[in-house]
Amino acid sequence: MNHPPFCPNPYCPNHFQAAGPWFIKTGSYHSKTAPRIQKFKCKTCGLSFSTRTFSIDYWTHRHICYHTILSHLITSSGIRDLSRILHASCSTVTDRIRRLAHQCLAASASLTCDMEIAEDLVADGFESFVCSQYLPNNIHILAGKESQFWFLSDYAQLTRKGRMTDYQKRKNKLIKEHLKLYKGSVYHSFQRMVEKTLELQKHSKKSLCRCIPMNISSTNR
Ligand SMILES: [Zn+2]
User: Fold this and answer.
1) Strand order in 23-29's β-sheet?
2) Angle, CA 54 vertex, CA 100 and CA 81 arms, to 5°
3) How far, in Å, from the CA of 9 to the mean position of ligand 1?
4) Which residues are in the CB-under-5-Å shell of ion ligand 1?
5) Spacing, Cα 47 to ligand 1 middle (Å)
6) Tens digits of per-residue pLDDT, 130-164?
7) Measured between alpha carbons, how far is 1 from 37 in angstroms, rounded to an integer?
8) Cα angle at 173 between 168 and 174, to 5 degrees?
9) Strand, helix or coil at 75?
10) Beta strand pairing status for 121-129 and 211-213?
11) What is the DSSP letter of 36?
12) d(CA 20, CA 9)
């Protein structure tokens, strides 16, 4: 990369609209993971950065094949399974999955921002958890009825419910005290998704797009 696409500083004017000679080259260096890394400096804010700043492997010491990770993830491989296949630690595998997930979200947002809806939409939601079952969540999904294309999704944090032992109840209470939660988080999550759908529909040829909710019960929380 000889020409960086934008300044990595989100507060710099060159972050969103980089035009003209807005940077200077400030040498290069070598590392184990890349043969030659070009360094740059923004003329406006003075931030130094390199070609690695725009890489999915930024701040890593080892390249791991993301195609291998993705192909095993879609066949439901676990973290330990991937760790054995890739000869990497579980924390390294988790880190690469996180990086891959960020890229997938960014790619999806970029592709769907001016997408035209030409079919009815189906909304659904499922419950999962992050880290432990004390931190459950609800993820809404909006997909095309015919194409099954995933248009967007939205996240809502929940609290643990159901039968618990006295110890689990105490722990749950402690977590709830420290966790910032909003009442009706699932309802608001669905509302956000509807708002985004209406935005998508604005520049869509299909003016009377029907949205079919599949998870009505989620609005009760
Ligand atoms: Zn800058």
Assistant:
1) 23-29, 37-42, 48-50
2) 25
3) 5
4) 7, 9, 12, 14, 42, 44-45, 47
5) 6
6) 888 999 999 999 999 999 998 889 999 998 888 99
7) 9
8) 100
9) coil
10) parallel
11) -
12) 17
How far does the centroid of ligand 1 lie from the alpha carbon of residue 59, in Å? 20
Query: What distances in angstroms separate CA 123 from CA 26, 144, 205, 215, one per listed residue?
Result: 50, 9, 20, 7
ipTM > 0.90 for the complex: yes
Biggest distance spanned by C-alpha atoms of the chain: 65
Distance (angstroms) between ligand 1 centre and the Cα of 101 equals: 26
Closest CA to 187 of 163, 214, 156: 156
The string of pLDDT tens digits covering residues 80-125 is 999 999 999 999 999 999 999 999 988 888 888 778 888 888 999 9
d(Cα 88, Cα 94) in Å, to the nearest integer?
A: 10
